[in-house]
Amino acid sequence: MNSYYFDHAATTPMHPEVMERMLELMKGPGGNASSIHAYGRAARSRLTRARDLVSSSVGCRPPELLFTSGGTESDNAALIGAARAQKRLGRNHIITSAVEHHAVLHTCEWLHREEGFTLTVVPVDGTGLIDPQHVKDAMTPETALVSVMHGNNEVGTLQPIEAIGDIAHAGGALFHVDAVQSLGWMQYRLQELPVDFMSFSAHKINGPQGVGALYVRTGVPFEALQHGGSQERKRRAGTENVVGIAGFAAALDICVNERPSKQLFTEKLRKRWIELLKEELHHDVEVVVNGHATRRLPHIANLSFIGVDTESMLMNLDMSGIAASSGSACTSGSLERSHVLEAMKLPPERLQSAVRFSFGLGNTMEEIQNAAPLVARIASRIRTSK
Questions:
Q1: What residues are annotated to the active site?
Q2: pTM exceeds 0.70, yes or no
Q3: Is the previous residue joined to 29 through a cis bond, with omega within 30 degrees of 0?
Q4: pLDDT tens, position by position, 97-130
Q5: Which of 58, 103, 164, 373 makes an SS bond possible with 188, Cβ 3.0 to 4.6 Å?
Q6: How far is it, in rounded angstroms, from Cα 354 to Cα 329?
Q7: Looking at residue 322, which CATH number applies to its domain?
């Protein structure tokens, strides 16, 4: 049985060149970047090169970038570190959106529940887009922080971060952007954006899992979450994962160099995938595309197969060797309905039948052509068996 991996928004396969770079370093000799002997200095040099490469790729200064264990830690560090620092200045209000990743939403809720911050969650429209005016209307003199993701991980909608950042700064608030899903697809020049914090993760760009980064603009209020050594300029204590960080840098370097061709090809895959499914299911199942038609990432296709239950669809896809996702978490063996699609106020028939397909390294047009009829047969079978 052939297998098809269409879940790149969840995690991506590691690029062969990244594996080669990491294996080279793992073979040793190793070294702690905080040690003063030759082995430590070599590790420090690798860390410095990686920081220089990543910071150059996203348009910030190397000292403004700190490495983390991934996107969740980056989000938590930015939100809690900025909120606590701002609270000391008399600001105790946070604004976020209803379609954020749980790493942001749950952290904001925790700050509200445990540390006394007031929280405003702004809505989105039916395409998942935030109206900047809603953010402006929510601003108060006490607003400490605004946090909005750039590219949505479930439907791909791109938020107007420049307009929202300007609104946050005009009101004296800090602005955090979760760019975990958009890194590698969008070009960033952070020095030119009204952004104070931006979160990244390596495993979404064909790098290793367990490595991420956080941009912290020079001079903004920020309190470290981890305490111990003086690593990462005392903003994130703990021995650095030099091998993982080097893999992150290698993956991002490849992304930057291949972005134009990668975007074009992935957009073609996505477009053809939707066309084929609609053609195959024309008489049996209505296929509806969720998310914004133009303001979106090129690799995510969130589709509702009207009348076909999401959980049944995913189980049957898996048994047929096709990896896709609902875009939501699986808890205790039961599928939770997407909070993103709920926030978009989609009708029940679309909410309960949505499947996310996402494309990337290794996917081919031939795969798309071969897999689409399989997906269509599964959807038709489930629909007619009801």
A1: 330
A2: yes
A3: yes
A4: 999 999 999 999 999 999 999 999 999 999 999 9
A5: 58
A6: 14
A7: 3.90.1150.10
